[in-house]
């Protein structure tokens, strides 16, 4: 069995940042990642532009230099690959952690699909991108309904419905329109979300006003069929329109069950794990959290730009424990 001082579950920017902070303080942690590094960023839309500026995505003191203030997905992927190489981080990729169990001696047994590890401390930095928020409407599981958007080209000359009204929905709608899809956006809100990137809202609003993209506010989806979607507007008027594909961009949430099985308590209303914000340690002594998972269901509270600092708090606490 492989013995480790610290195991970090998740190789996203916040997990990598925690690994760097620990290594710089004399502990060389093992990062275990179910995909490859920054897998969630890899799964972003191909042409995604970040909301944050490049300097706010930096980790480990490695400069992130781009020609524009706001980097795009491919630039971020290249940057984080370079950081891993420069910092010589130990990462087991394509290895999914199945469970973390506390032992009687206070250590943790970490079981993956490939083996078992024993660690003195565990950091959970798994994010939320694997768990879409489902609408629980008939037809949501049909093969032409997606909760992730990658590229628009396959939907040229097709009727496409985008569900949601925040950044992911607006980005998808714009890309689909530019690729020649006939786009309808259904949003249960009464107006544009305040979280929409300010540099894309004017373009989106202009396309709506000109009728190039159809937007329905106060729209609640009722049912999805193979060639149509039904929804209710203002709680009274039911409409049915044709659609070939549906993108339900309804957000994501952490894997609460994964945390609960470790003994981490979750606030059922907010989805927020119980943890000490000064150390990022959960109610389970020796289990820490890093990144957006600390925000619970509110994915707009913690981003890379503030979650990257969790690693420093975690490293300081673990080092302090070692000196006692």
TrEMBL record:
Its cofactor is FAD. It comes from the Bacteria. GO terms for molecular function: oxidoreductase activity. Keywords: Flavoprotein, Oxidoreductase. It holds the Pfam family Pyr_redox_3. PANTHER family: THIOREDOXIN REDUCTASE 1-RELATED-RELATED (PTHR48105). NCBIfam families: Bthiol_YpdA. This is Uncharacterized protein. It comes from Aeribacillus pallidus.
């Amino acid at each position: 069995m492989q013995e480790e001082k610290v195991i970090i579950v998740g190789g996203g920017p916040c997990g990598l940042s925690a690994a760097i902070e620990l290594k710089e303080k004399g502990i060389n942690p093992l990062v275990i990642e179910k995909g490859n590094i920054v897998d969630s960023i890899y799964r972003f839309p191909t042409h995604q532009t970040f909301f944050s500026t490049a300097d706010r995505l930096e980790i480990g003191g490695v400069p992130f230099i781009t020609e524009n203030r706001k980097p795009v997905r491919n630039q971020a992927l290249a940057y984080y690959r370079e950081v891993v190489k420069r910092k010589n981080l130990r990462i087991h990729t394509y290895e999914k952690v199945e469970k973390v169990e506390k032992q009687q001696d206070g250590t943790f047994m970490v079981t993956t699909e490939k083996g078992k590890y024993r660690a003195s401390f565990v950091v959970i930095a798994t994010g939320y991108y694997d768990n879409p928020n489902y609408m629980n409407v008939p037809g949501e599981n049909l093969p032409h309904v997606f909760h992730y958007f990658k590229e628009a080209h396959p939907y040229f000359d097709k009727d496409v419905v985008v569900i949601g009204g925040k950044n992911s929905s607006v980005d998808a709608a714009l890309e689909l329109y530019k690729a020649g899809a006939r786009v309808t956006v259904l949003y249960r809100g009464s107006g544009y979300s305040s979280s929409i990137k300010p540099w894309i809202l004017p373009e989106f609003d202009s396309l709506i006003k000109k009728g190039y993209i159809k937007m329905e506010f106060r729209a609640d989806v009722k049912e999805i069929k193979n060639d149509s979607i039904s929804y209710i507007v203002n709680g009274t008027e039911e409409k049915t329109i044709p659609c070939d594909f549906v993108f339900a961009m309804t957000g994501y949430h952490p894997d609460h069950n994964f945390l609960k099985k470790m003994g981490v308590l979750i606030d059922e209303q907010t989805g927020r794990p119980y943890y000490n914000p000064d150390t990022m340690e959960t109610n389970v002594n020796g289990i820490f959290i890093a990144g957006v998972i600390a925000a619970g269901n509110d994915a707009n509270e913690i981003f890379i730009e503030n979650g990257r600092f969790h690693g420093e708090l975690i490293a300081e606490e673990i080092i302090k424990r070692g000196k006692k």
